[in-house]
Amino acid sequence: MAAGKELNPSDYIQHHLTFFRAPLGEGEFWTLNVDTVITSVLLGVMGLGLIWWVVRGATSGVPDRRQAFVELLIEFVDDQVKGIFHHGDRNRFIAPTALTVFVWVTLMNAMDFLPVDWVAGALGFIGLHEWRPVPTADINATFALSISVLLLSIYFAIAAKGFGGWVHEMFCAPFGANPLLWPANLLFNLVEYVSKTLSHAMRLFGNIYAGEILFFLLWLWAATGVAGSFFGFWFGLGWAIFHILIVLLQAYIFMMLTIVYISMAHEHH
């Protein structure tokens, strides 16, 4: 980024909010945010690879710190699933999915702790001048996650009730089976599916995006002079510490809603 642009707050923020995009066709819809996809995949592989590495070397004796941490993580997630999901063997799919979601979303959220100028400077050496390192600050990524949960919910609803039972529920619940009520029931259920998916995606995106913007503003403040550097550093440090809670809390909420929505799909009305 040019030195002149660094002095302009609007240009500075706009530069760091620009995706590295690859057009797949005509129009904005057919544009791929390459940075979001690559970062998400790398973090997913890293997170699952780390857990696999620890589990592979686990022993039945006294665990080391690494094994103890992973065991506590797995036990914590399993306890959350146990308290919500009561429709069969949770260890077959639901608990592993919840663990994957929690670890993956946490890692994606935690990319917000990397100083964005350091990331931009390092990638600039290989010619990548536009790269957003926080996948969950991209609405496309959070919607992809929430739509995946929606599809899983529909799949488990059909698996638990049969396709006919699921269609019957869509048209006959919650107001009754009278044919005159079918349109209202269908509309109500469609709104419920859409609203859950929207809120699931927007909650995660909104919190992480807001945190990203606040970091930008604090770094800009730190560049205004000696006083700005002093206060910007300490406020930035305070926000980074508080942001740890946000990163973990948003990953936890996203995981819990995933469990709740899949559990609700098994319930008969």
Question: What does this molecule look like?
Answer:
With 269 residues, the protein is an all-alpha fold. The protein has one domain (3-265). Helix content is 73%, strand content 2%. The chain is built from nine helices and two strands; from the N terminus they run H-H-E-E-H-H-H-H-H-H-H. The chain has a two-stranded antiparallel ribbon. Strand 1 and strand 2 form a beta hairpin. It is globular, with a radius of gyration of 22 Å. Mean pLDDT is 89; it is low at 1-6.
Question: What would a concise description of this structure say?
Answer:
With 269 residues, this protein is an all-alpha fold.
How does the major sheet shape up?
2 strands, antiparallel
Mean pLDDT: 89
Gross geometry: globular
Q: Oligomer, anyone? A: single chain
- Summarize the helix and strand pattern as letters: HHEEHHHHHHH
Cα-to-Cα separation, first versus last residue: 57 Å
Please state the structural category: mainly alpha
Number of strands: 2
How many helical stretches?
9
- Work out the strand percent: under 5%
Helix content: over 70%
**Contiguous runs where pLDDT drops below 50 for at least 5 residues:** 1-6
Tell me the domain tally: 1
Radius of gyration over C-alpha positions, nearest whole angstrom: 22 Å
Strand order of the largest sheet: 1-2
Write the layout of secondary structure elements.
Layout: H1 3-6, H2 9-16, E1 21-23, E2 31-33, H3 34-56, H4 65-84, H5 94-110, H6 116-124, H7 139-172, H8 182-222, H9 226-265
Antiparallel strand pairs: 1-2
Helix pairs in contact: 3-5, 4-5, 5-9, 7-8, 7-9, 8-9
